[in-house]
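User: What would this chain look like folded?
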Amino acid sequence: MSNISKNSLKTVLLQLECHFTWTLLKDDVDLDNLEETICDQIEFLITKSKISNYNLLAYVKHMKGNSEEALESLQKAEGEVQTNHSDEVDRKSLVTWGNYAWVYYHMNKLQEAQSYISKVESSCKKLSSASRYKIQLPEIYCEQGWALLKFGIKYYERAKKCFEKALEEEPNNPEFNSGYAIAIYRLEDFLTKGSSGEDSSLEPLRRAVRLNPNDTFVMALLALKLQDIDQVEEGEKYIKEALQKTPDLPYLLRYAAKFYRKKGLVEKSLGFLKKALEFTPTSGFLHHQIGLCYRTQLYKMKKATKYPPKEQMEELIRFAIFHFKMVVEQKSKFMYAYIDLASMYAEGNQYQEAEDTFQKVFKMKKLTCDEKQQLHYRYGRFQEYHKKSESEAINHYTEGLKIEKTSHERNLCKDALKKLIERRIQRGTADAKNFSILGLIHQLNGEKPQAIECYKKALALEPDSEEYLSALCEIQLSIEI
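Assistant: Here's the prediction, encoded as structure tokens.
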């Protein structure tokens, strides 16, 4: 084929509904970790469509440069369609055929690519589509939603919208309801944790469990949501019911472990995690949760007595570091694991290792606002409590506060700053910058008179500061208006 026909083929390919046209960027995920997750789900999540996972696996294989393996995954997707949906081949194969066309295009096998484009076109015609190469089907929206969820927090809002579109067509479809509930739960995990209001995942999760009582994955998320809003007893009822139905499902075991760790039953949590690890020994999620359990035991021991047993504490720190290191080796983009590892190095007085690990996170690209706030807060605590550097702690708490995104982490930065600066004022060591920051905190809290007083004190110490004068004038004008 000529270059012109290859270009015209590309124009058609871009119209297809498949993973290659859904803007799933490889820079946003760890491809090795994503591949492992998909393979685990294919093996263990029997309630979930294997077609979607094989299609996504093909896309991941392609992004890793393994075209032949990508084709093998697509063949498995086709096999699943033939086995389980022989009466709906046209509907269920559109995404698979689109992926086939793209893989062959990138392999420069243009005739094969054209043959799969023709299959898509033929199916669209049979299904009475207004477009030659695409059709708006709820199952395609659903498949896109599952793929988006796998690519991380930046994609969750798009995933939610995909499941909403699918539900408009089939409001009682169990899989669409599960996907929608999971998308909201994931979004909530980063935005409004502890919410039980109108936008909460509580009712979508309840509905998903009602429509598919055998989906113990969603049942476990409902249990965790109930725990978040202090309905622990009802949450535990769902955890127990799920464990009776699928006692060896790794995904359920990990969430049961999370539930019991949050409940304070750390040994019970560790038992579930170690059992799950037997099924998926390289799971970054499991190693992270095990590390968190050891950290919880460490903090509990430190809180219980003034002189906790040194050997036991060192052992817990060593165990936690081991598991957090396992996570960052498996999930190179999981910034929270790096922060947990750095904090545990600090607990073991390994300050250089802690510093080096924090710096790796500062060098990460494309961190979300929430992640940046979390990073500045945790590094600020490292500086305040381990390095004993109040000035560095103040700098990083302030950086976290300046990121104008309402979040739990931002509030933590604000509270830590307030305590530190008020302590400095009591000692008589506060400077103009400290009073200015305290003024900002009062301003954010809606406490304008206190904010004005702080900015005046900052100006008294640095009369020529245009920044402090501008902030003071702005507040005074807002009061006059």
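Residues 284-304 form the longest helix (21 residues). If you want, I can go into more detail on any region.
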